[in-house]
Amino acid sequence: MTEDESDTESSAGMEEDLVGLDGDEVLDRLRQECRMLQELDELARPTPYGRILQTKTLAHWKKAEQNWGFGYTGNSARRKREFAQIQREKEEKNAVIRKRLVFKI
Fold first, then answer.
1. Residues 13, 15: Cα–Cα separation, whole Å
2. Is the C or the N end of the chain the one with fewer CB within 10 Å?
3. What's residue 53's pLDDT?
4. φ, ψ of residue 20 in degrees (nearest 5)
5. CA distance 19 to 17
6. Region class of 10: left (phi > 0), else alpha (psi between -120 and 50), else beta
């Protein structure tokens, strides 16, 4: 059975179900059918994890390797503050050492 045949059969089956219903019941059935189709579409879409696991072509890998340097570069404000603090601490230690050397001479 092909996909077109199954669609035709499901449509015919739905029409048979709707024959004995009044207006509100028909609308409820149609809404329910629409929700089910939307859920099926959502389930058919690959998840983010599934997209990660898909095989990558050579072109994808080349692009990824070209862009790998666009990540963290160490130039964030936090890193600059950390570096400034390290420099201050070094300068304080050097000042103490210089004072010791001056007194020894």
1. 5
2. C
3. 87
4. -90, 10
5. 6
6. alpha
pLDDT at 33 > cutoff 60: yes
- The structure tokens listed for 16 are 């048979």
Give the integer Cα–Cα distance in Å for 12 and 6: 10
Residue 102 structure tokens: 């001056």
pLDDT tens readout for residues 45-102: 888 888 888 888 999 888 888 887 776 777 788 889 999 999 999 999 999 988 887 7
pTM above the 0.70 mark?
A: no
C-alpha span between 48 and 22 (Å, rounded): 43
- Which residue in this structure is represented by tokens 């050579």? 58
Looking at 1-105, which runs of residues are DSSP E strands? none
